[in-house]
Amino acid sequence: MKQLNTFALSLMVCLFLSACATSQKTSEASAEATASTESKEEDEKKDEDKDKDKGYDDIITDEAITDEGLFTTHKVEDKYYFEIPTELLSKEILVVSRISGHVKGLNFGGAGMKSRPQQVIRWEQQYDHILLRSVSYNSVASFEDPIYKSVKNNNFEPIIERFKIETYNPDSTAVVLEVGKFFVEDVPMLGPLSDSQRKNFGIKGLDGGRSFIKHMKAYPSNIEVRHVLTFKGSDLPDNQLTGTLSIEMNQSFIELPEEPWQPRYYDDRVSYFSLSQIDYSADEQKAARKRYITRWRLDPSDMEAYKRGELVEPKKPIVYYIDPATPEKWRPYLKQGVEDWQGAFEAAGFKNAIIAKDPPSKEEDPEWSPEDVRYSVIRYVSTEIQNAMGPHVHDPRTGEILESDIIWYHNVMNLLRNWFLIQTAAVNPAARGVKFEDELMGELIRFVAAHEVGHTLGLPHNMGSSVAYPVDSLRKAGFVQRMGVAPSIMDYARFNYVAQPEDEGAGLFPTIGPYDTWSIIYGYKLISESDSAEDERATLNEWIKERADDPIYRFGQQQWRVVDPSAQTEDLSGEPVKASDLGIKNLQRILPQLIDWTNREGEDYDDLEELYKQVAGQFRRYVGHVGNNVGGVYEYDKTYDQEGPVYTHVPKDRQKAAVDFLDRQLFTTPSWMIDKDIISRVGATVIVDLIRGLQSYGINLLFDSKRLNRMMENEALNGTDAYTMGSLFKDTRDGIFREVRQGDAVDPYRRNLQRLYVDQMGELLMESGEDADYSDQKAMARASLSRIEKLLEAQGGKAKDAATTAHYEDLLARIDLIQEGKMPAGKSGRSSSLQESDLHFNCWHD
């Protein structure tokens, strides 16, 4: 026992001595670290002191590459500097972040797309540093009002970066900042990636070693910084083997107008892009939200003449320059698309308000650049993207548009070829081929250019325009030539697909129409007796009410999920069944000719396959145009001084006619699409999947839960005057299971359709959430399955062939699974070989 105690005591002494030694080493290490830190801080302080002794010429040396503009930029070896005049400090600067280098799969728009909403910043001095602060105009108040201070305090401006003042310029009128690191760091305000993209691409961080500034350029009203950011990721949109995503960015720092342009109020009844602010100075007993439209500043060169009603040129017209990279043969058509808007501006009192020009040559103006914010440019981009876009940059204080660069993608011509052939070739020999004559393609380019210019003038899509014209008018000679296919070129009303071969003289092209002229009047006609946006409101309201009862002047919001069937994309006329029946007749004429029209010696069948899918896509559009009337609700925006409801359910007879249309044209197998000569050239398994995909779309469309809930609402409000959910289930069931009732054999197309229908009933039963649980949809789906089950059991022994017998047994098994709370494998057929991306349903995006 004594030996054990002696051993324990010895062990304790050893541990104590070891701990002492460890403690001593730790203390020594800590002392060394402290000394090292102090030494480092001293060195940094010495460097700072040393830098303080450096003058302007020591930092901005003779080797500097300098560019003067809004403020001056310098590149000295591998360092970049901003030289910012002190008079610009505390002034507000607009920042626009764009992706300037196209990365496949990163986003739809490609090069030129904004990666962030435009933002306002302020440079603010804090002792020997400059703060870069983010400024918001979401909440505002008049500087003179007592509440201004509260608004300011309750909207504290974030500090994005803190820059050390390296030196002052020789006369101390500007500060010099080293900014290189700012543009190679992962700064959210300037970044190219959203949070969801970072997650989807497996982004692991920014690699500063492979991020760099390409160049900085200074112009009188803006500074441009081009830089590359390189990210590491695991699931990247392109070049996945490299684990690298390099994105070229462009940051624009833009001077805001010294004198803000008078804003004009936004109104839901007229189409304009807008900005929104909470105005705490408004005479309201709440935080009042105000919306202003975005528009260009147009000042008459002779105000007195303008007041007399004479046409007057603006002091500064809207000018678009054509990108020097644009092929020569397309330039005249792009210019025409711009200047087609001159007539609308004349209605607002201005002549030559909008002009297109070729850019000056290097000899004429060596300093001219499309990056100079003083110039708006139609930029020609050579990628495979089938698109064009018309964005603009505006003053967030007033909505004044400062500049716009329309992005024109070369391959939009392929999209135009497809649309024009599929929609007009039945009546138009010029459209019957895979390569159009230059004059025809030029006119198509002119149409898209005019549409995109409309966006840059402040106009969004007006999807409620095309319903104004009846089918018979669209088929008359001369009507479309005068009025366009819709009152607004800003609608997605492409070409006149309702015109039939016997309709001699019927026009085919969209054009700037009467609604477009009205919208320009609303946005740009000056109200000379008004000194503020508030003063204008009564006059603007009267202008709107004067036109309120005319459907030509109606504005319909773009919908991402269609509720109002009178504001759909790609449709013509307010008669969807009649227009779609005529459109399908033309598709039936076109399809048999596709082999001849795409025949080019030595070429494969890619064009034939693409156009065959385009026919299917156009047919699908007609299905949507009609089907969306079921459970549809019209929306006609009104104010208290206008009579009538804002929301109205689609009439019963129109909904019933829509369901009948789908039964005739879609659920009854569209055999006209089964062209064996085409199918044998474009794929081994094409037609069954194609028709199943189209029918699946139709069934999913009709039995969308939100649509069914609107039908329940309609029945609750209007009783027997409503087309009810029960009617929809019965009418579709009777049509889709027609062969079963009649004891006929069921062919492969109809077998697929009946499976889709049963699976759709199962999906309705499986849906959860308050909207589904307290809706009639589950009761209707359950009752529908029960009726189908009884019908199948009654007819099972009378099936005409083995395939039909097996099909009946399969349907009964599916129903049993659903009733047990399970879903059959491959439910509803939502996945199909017919993809929206193949059919270009989204058309161009703006």
Could you describe the 3D structure shown?
With 846 residues, the protein is an alpha+beta fold. It has 4 domains: 1-53; 58-255, no CATH class; 263-547, Collagenase (Catalytic Domain) (3-Layer(aba) Sandwich), CATH 3.40.390; 649-829, no CATH class. 39% of the residues lie in helices and 17% in strands. It has 27 helices and 26 strands. The strands form 5 sheets. Strands 1, 2, 3, 4, 5, 6, 7, 9, 10, 11, 12, 13 and 14 form a 13-stranded antiparallel sheet that branches. Strand 2 (72-76) and strand 3 (79-85) form a beta hairpin. Helix 6 (331-339) packs across helix 9 (438-456), helix 16 (606-627) packs parallel to helix 19 and helix 23 (748-766) runs parallel beside helix 26 (802-819).
Give a brief outline of the structure:
The chain has 846 residues and is of the alpha+beta class. 39% of the residues lie in helices and 17% in strands. Helix 14 packs antiparallel against helix 16 and helix 23 packs parallel to helix 26 (802-819).
Give the total of beta strands. 26
Total number of helical segments? 27
Coarse morphology:
globular
Largest sheet: 13 strands, antiparallel
Low-confidence stretches: 1-23, 25-29, 139-151, 828-846
Distance between the termini: 91 Å
User: Could you please say which CATH topology of the largest domain applies here?
Assistant: Collagenase (Catalytic Domain)
Number of domains: 4
